[in-house]
Specification:
By secondary structure, this protein is α+β, with helices and mostly antiparallel strands. It folds into 2 domains: 2-109, Cathepsin D, subunit A, domain 1; 133-171. It has helices spanning 14-19, 83-89, 154-166, 168-171; strands at residues 2-3, 11-13, 28-29, 33-34, 42-56, 59-70, 79-81, 92-94, 99-104, 107-109, 133-137, 145-149. Strands 1, 2, 3, 4, 5, 6 and 7 form a 7-stranded mixed sheet that branches. Strands 8-9-10 form a 3-stranded antiparallel sheet, with no helix packed on it. The longest helix has 13 residues, at 154-166.
């Protein structure tokens, strides 16, 4: 299932419905176009209310959810979890972290259990420069300097010095 925080519907594709071996008699008639769903309009097949469980390890939460069933050819996902399910689960979604947290009787799923200290990402690690630095004086305020790496190619070194000096009022 794809979590789509922009979707106002919870979608179940007919191919998934069939794989679950659900009776067609459970489908309630609901025929309306969905525009922008796949880049064009598609008609819904019906709606079905099912128990929906999200879990990880021993923590889980089950709700009754109404899915709009859509029959499209070769869907990339089994369905879409939209705002109705996310709201019913009281879920918090972080697309940046690719995580979802939701309350369960056993506690909040998605919380770190072992180490609650924030992890430093590789890209955020601060360290020593990987080259020797040289001090370069500003043009107008020569008593002030800025430092650049000595391993820069000559044209990049000249370009960087020119840029910093051009915007000296910002950097100095």
């Amino acid at each position: 299932m794809l979590v789509d925080t922009d979707s106002s519907l919870d979608i179940l594709y007919m191919s998934t419905y069939d794989k679950l071996q659900l009776s067609r008699s459970l489908l309630q008639p609901f025929h309306t176009p969905l525009t922008g769903f796949t880049g064009h309009s598609v008609f819904t097949t019906g709606v079905v209310t099912l128990d929906f469980t999200v879990s990880c390890g021993s923590k889980s939460s089950t709700i009754r959810a109404q899915f709009t069933v859509v029959d499209i050819k070769d869907p990339s996902y089994n369905g879409l979890i939209g705002r109705p399910i996310l709201t019913a689960l009281r879920a918090i979604v972080s697309p940046i972290h690719l995580k979802m947290k939701f309350p369960t009787p056993g506690g909040i799923e998605g919380e770190e259990e072992e180490d609650n200290e924030p992890k430093e990402r590789e890209s955020e690690k601060k360290g020593e420069p990987n080259a020797e630095l040289e001090s370069v004086p500003f043009q107008r305020e020569v008593e002030k300097t800025f430092r650049i790496g000595t391993n820069l190619e000559s044209k990049h070194r000249r370009g960087l010095i020119a840029l910093v000096r051009e915007y000296e009022d910002v950097f100095a």
